[in-house]
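Issue: ligand-bound run for heme C - logging full I/O for the record.

Environment: standard queue, default settings, no custom constraints.

Inputs:
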Amino acid sequence: MRSSSCIYRHTSMRSRKLFWICIVSVSLIALYFSFRYFVSTITELPAGDSLNNIIRSDTENIARGKILFDAKCRFCHNAYNTETIAGPGLQGILKKPELPVSRRPATSDDVRSQLRQPFSRMPSFDYLTDKEVEDIIAFLNTL
Ligand code: HEC
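Outputs:
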């Protein structure tokens, strides 16, 4: 009799512990998803998109990107063909599978790293803000 009540108490303590572990993990998961949702609303991302790989398609972003491109990239890069000036022509740059020189995947993330830490001879554009880089990528995506 005594031993069985002891077993009973033991299992109920264990299930109570399990219960709390469940509650804590469910809350952590809920917290994680609400945080992701919060981040996606402040940056206006469609849910599920990677924060770094999003490409904007609003006309204002594209227009600002073109102005930046003309001011900072055009003397080394053709936008409307693939002929080289100092760097490769960037026509269709984000529509091809690979970037022309480094052969890294043609994603917005890799273009961003080309601007921050260029592959070899291109000057770095580390001083551009994230927003400006986003605009340039929006423009490149239309080429
Ligand atoms: C002074 C010349 C110069 C300027 C200005 C310049 N680039 Fe480049 N770019 C290069 C050269 C040279 C390469 C070839 C790869 C290298 O040397 O890093 C290149 C490569 C690239 C590539 C392909 C990278 C790869 O991985 O194959 C992209 C994309 C690019 N540039 C985008 C830009 C953008 C966007 C700007 C403007 C913000 C810009 N470049 C400004 C010279 C330039």
